[in-house]
Here is the input.
Amino acid sequence: MSAKNEKIAIVSRSFWPESPAIGEALLLLAESLSKDAKPIVMTQVNKGFTKKLKSFGRGKNVKFLTLPALTDSSSPMVLRISELLLFTGFTFTSLVYHRPDKVYVATNPPVFTPLAVRWYCQLFDKKYVYHLQDIHPEITSIVTGKKNFLTRLLECIDTKTITKASTVITLTEQMQSYITKRTGKQLNIRLLSNPAVQDSNQTDNTSLERIKGFVYCGNAGRLQRIPLLLNSIKRYIQEGGKLPFVFAGGGVYSDAIQELAAQYQNVSYLGVLPAHEASNLLHQYSFGLMPIEDEVTEYAFPSKSSSYIFSGCQVIAVCGKDTSVAEWVLTNNLGYVAEPNIESLVSLFHEIKKNSQSGFNIADELLKELTPQSHADSLKSIIVKG
Here is the structure.
């Protein structure tokens, strides 16, 4: 339990209500800490944040230090980097002014804001917990295809931030192994899965009457093998396949998805959906598509995975069999793993069409672990022990 009146800062741009999974978990964490300590949340918010807190009766006895959100994923890179640096400066000055005893910091934004936390904690002899939800700058280098002096410098900076943390949290054993290899040290690393989006209006029953078909919900970006997925769907339909495919979310390949949807009746693109609508969509279909580049699994884990399982969707992972994603799906009997090529995917689509629809039983313990409340409880335990 936290010492009474101990100040604990939570630093992350992923926050409620815009982030309904991790953001919800962090708000629950702050509310729980407020019973025994003085939580301070440093984040960026959209207009009306304070009104929403009051309207939903959230965040009581929590101090919020906020900057307005100035950009989104479609903003020019220069503006997004400027905003990152602005938030980093805001974080450092806020920490120095309020002097928390412990700090929790996540990788949104990466490298620079955790660096500001490290500087503060070194300056005032405080402790911090570093939550690596993804590992930078490696994951950025995969997107850009570039490794240079700057990326090596950023890696060096972040490695030192990792080694100075009292506790490091990450998602998978594969990510843990990479962190140990990169730092060259045996660190205090805890594993914690990402939480799922939990719609309070949605039933927990995972054996609902579902449409036998496929849903993709999330970012359609460069790391998600979207061209491979779209070409496989096209081949499947050309071979007479009738099962439906539904896409929701934004990303660089959203136009390509729209084009495919315009070509074929059994492909739909719904655009970016509010969290509750996305949750409802996942409850309607039997299979959730989860393609990911193999290299990425060393540095990240698909955030949509938890929401698929929590909604009762069987997972169709499109990746190599030696990745942490494939291991997670197969070990927990959560669905199928298709090798990342057109033939394997098309064959699996046809196989699923032939198979009779069966119930999907998920262990209660796994479902509980994926709730934002369980995530918040785990974070609190780690932070308090420090």
In short: The chain has two domains: 7-195+371-385, 211-368.
